Amino acid sequence: MPIGPIGDNGLFDQFIASHSGENAWIEKRRKAAWNQFHELPMPRKKDESWRFASRLAFEFNDFKLVEQPDATTIGKVVERSNLNSSALARLVFADNYLVHEDPLSMDLQTKGVVFESFDQAVQKHGGLLEQYLFREEAHLGSEKFVALNTALSNCGGVVYVPKGVVVDQPLLVYHWATKENVAVFPHTLIIAEEGASVNVIDVYQSLDSDAPAFCAASGNIYAEANAQVMRKCVQNWNQSTISFQNDATAVKKDGVTKTLAVNLGSKRARFENQVRMAEPGSHATLYSLTVAQGDQEFDQRTYQSHDAPNAVSDLLYKNALLDNSRTIFSGMINVAKDAQHTDAYQTNRNLLLSPEADANSLPGLEIQANDVKCSHGATTGQLDPDELFYMMQRGIHKRTAQQLMVFGFFEEVIEKFDNEEIKNNVRELVQSKFHL
Amino acid sequence: MSNQIEIKNLNVSIADKPILKDFSLELPRGEVHALMGPNGTGKSTLAKVIAGHEDYEVESGEILVDGTNILGMEPDEIGRLGVFLAFQYPMEIPGVTIANFIRAALQARQEEGENFDAPAYYRELYDKMDLLKMDRKFTSRSINEGFSGGEKKRCEILQMAMLNPTYGIMDETDSGLDIDALKIVSNGVNLMRNENRGILVITHYQRLLDYIIPDKVHVMWDGKIVKTGDKELAKELEAKGYNWVKNELAVA
After folding, report:
1. Do the Cβ atoms of A357 and A322 come closer than 8 Å?
2. Fewer CB near the last or first residue (10 Å), C or N of chain A?
3. Would the pLDDT of B54 be above 60?
4. Is the distance from CB of A230 to CB of A196 less than 8 angstroms?
5. Among candidate residues A298, A352, A354, A355, the one with its CA nearest the CA of residue A329
6. Is the pLDDT of residue A436 over 50?
7. What would be the CATH architecture of the domain defined by B4-94+167-251?
8. Helices (H), B118-196
């Protein structure tokens, strides 16, 4: 891997040279993306898709690709990649390098399940990847960062589950930033063939609590007919990190996807999530939970695209805001003309826990079909004084009552983690951030 | 005098409108009193004022709980002092389970550093749920969320049974209950009757008092108690209607 500032043409040439083992089509794609990255202007506040976002004040060349972490660092990050204690399959990346791997069980490997790093998968499964990699795109404003990810990504989990195979334990992918000013480019690809089922959890963390870092992550999920994919992200970068994540999902006939994002970290975090109901009967749920504190800004843009009839999508994004923090939720449901009998819902709830916090909400609907059930709604409010009175009447101290109510607000999302230990660990992560 | 709730000449208004007018009442431990009256006469206001709700302006008067004046105290202090209010409309608290809620309320009463005996807690909780014919799955459900009217009221009684208050104020506990639920809830209240506890049953109807037999019945009209008697008064009231009180007052 080359080392150097990420906006630099020389760095990209070295990157291509060091990835000469990749298929020609990937190289071609990377080169086009690199040009696109340079050609696209930096998003500006006046762009509709960046409404309410604060100005992007950083230089790409402030961040760099770095050398592989040393053994001590690797030891630390592997030890802390512990959302779950039991021996599940796990990939651990640090500064874009795969530093640890707990492989799939022999049984799943025999059945043809793939769970590998992006780099390995590109080498070993080029043909498969050609059908899926960089195919599904979301145009929600972050094209420049997606292009950068396409050009420079070589890490992240690639998951492939063959027809009818059920992977019954979560697959865990940890992404670490360990060095000052490091740039990381995780790329997630999940493919579940017909009737397959899989559950993938991505965790993003910083080793150092203050070191600035940059992340442009990108992900694609493909749920084929009757497949079930659960994808959960815990974004817990330190609060000096700038992060972008752009996910695009396609759901086929009677397929089910559930995406769940827990957003805790970063100085500013932009999260874009698009789900396309590509075939009849597809079903997608999108959950998100954000705890914003200090001067953090969380900017969330979503797109529920109903291209086919009889499909369901349900979105619930919850934000709790402390201090001077800001959140932006901008969601769109688009129902195509032929997508009759669509059920599509979009809910954004913001809990303001400080008078200085600022929650912005832009729910949206575009419906071309005439026989659909769609709703969108946004609420922004403080803790309900009547609920508080009720709890205090039982003798519960005011602060404890407020905490219980806030944690209760989170619970609706946290309970969607179906593994008990992971649920508890996520709950603890969320609660540890909380200081009433 | 201690060992009672003593309300003396209480005047309360909300948004400058007087609700309680020179209201006085004594509820000693060991007794069950019923407070009856038509809607809008100030019964629920009284319950909330006793519990320390901040929306009500107390202009004059006193509320003494075992000799301590509670006016101006925070609702949680009053709660820990031993006053329990069973709400007419219990709040739904999303994401807070019954088990965690009651546990937090019990822990708030512990000394600092005191350990919470979780197994004993769950044993007691399950025993009391059995008495109230509540399914154990309720413990892991959010407080009152999606509960029927009867389930909500049973949940109030469960909380009261677990918190062991010195005084229970039951605000329209019978509203919204069918006869089976009414019997279960009344039975729960009756099991809590003892010489160390005073209970004030606020109700619009006499029906509840067939199951919870009061030691005294007070009739409230226009912000104050206008008539006090024994359980027969409730029956008389049921038979003659509240207009009877009104007409009597007019004559007087």
Report:
1. yes
2. C
3. yes
4. no
5. A298
6. no
7. 3-Layer(aba) Sandwich (3.40)
8. 118-131, 149-163, 179-191
Task: State whether A398 and B74 contact (CB < 8 Å).
Answer: yes
CA-based nearest distance B218→chain A, Å: 25
Residues A108-164: tens digit of each pLDDT: 999 999 999 999 999 899 889 999 998 898 999 999 999 999 999 999 999 999 999
* Contact across the interface for B79 and A393, Cβ inside 8 Å: yes
Written as one string, the DSSP assignment of B151-171 is HHHHHHHHHHHHH--SEEEEE
pLDDT average, residue stretch A291-299 = 96
Helix (H, G, I), strand (E, B) or coil at A121: helix
- What residues have CB less than 8 Å from A173, skipping those under 6 apart? A90, A91, A93, A156, A157, A186, A188, A200, A201, A202, A203
CB contact under 8 A, A391 and B109: no
Range with the lowest mean pLDDT among A230-244, A407-421, B133-147? Answer: A407-421
Using one digit for the tens of pLDDT, what is the confidence trace for B142-154? 999 989 888 999 9
- In terms of pLDDT, which residue wins out, B113 or A96? A96
A398: nearest CB among B76, B105, B163: B76
Chain B contact set for A379 (CB, 8 A):
none
Q: Do B94 and A411 touch (CB under 8 A)?
A: yes
A396 vs B105: CB contact, 8 Å cut-off?
yes
Chain-chain contact of B94 with A390 (C-beta, under 8 angstroms): no
Would you state the pLDDT for residue A417? 78
Q: Report CB contact under 8 Å: A386, B91.
A: yes
Q: Are A297 and A270 in contact (CB under 8 A)?
A: no
CB contact under 8 A, B159 and A389: no
Tokens 């590109």 appear where? A122
The answer to whether the beta carbons of residues A297 and A265 sit under 8 Å apart is no
Q: Would you mind telling me the total number of residues written for chain A in this entry?
A: 436
Q: Which residues of chain B does A404 touch, with a Cβ-Cβ cutoff of 8 Å?
A: 93, 96, 100-101, 104
Mean pLDDT over residues A320-331, rounded? 96
Cβ-defined contact of B76 to A395 (cutoff 8 Å): yes
B157 at interface of A, judged by CB pairs closer than 8 A: no
Tell me which chain B residues have a C-beta less than 8 angstroms from the C-beta of A387: 91-93
Between the CA atoms of B175, B181, B187 and B193, what dihedral angle is there, to the nearest 10 degrees?
A: -30
Per DSSP, the three-state class of A322 is coil
Nearest by CB: B95 against A394, A398, A409: A409
Cβ-nearest to A392 among B79, B84, B142: B79
Q: Map out the domains of chain A as residue ranges.
A: 4-279, 389-436
For chain B, say whether A404 makes contact (Cβ under 8 Å): yes
Q: What is the least distance, in Å, from the CA of B142 to any CA of chain A?
A: 9
- Select from B90, B109, B142 the Cβ nearest to the Cβ of A395: B109
pLDDT reading at B53 higher than 50: yes
Measured distance CA(A293)–CA(A277) in Å, rounded: 34
For residues A425-436, average pLDDT: 76
CA triple B151-B154-B155, angle to 5 deg: 85
Determine whether the interchain pair A396/B108 forms a contact, defined as Cβ–Cβ distance below 8 Å. yes
Alpha carbon distance B24, B11 (integer Å): 10
Please state the pTM of the whole predicted model.
Answer: 0.85
Best mutation target among A379, A390, A412, A427 (most B Cβ atoms within 10 Å) is: A390
Q: How far apart are CA B152 and CA A19, in angstroms?
A: 64
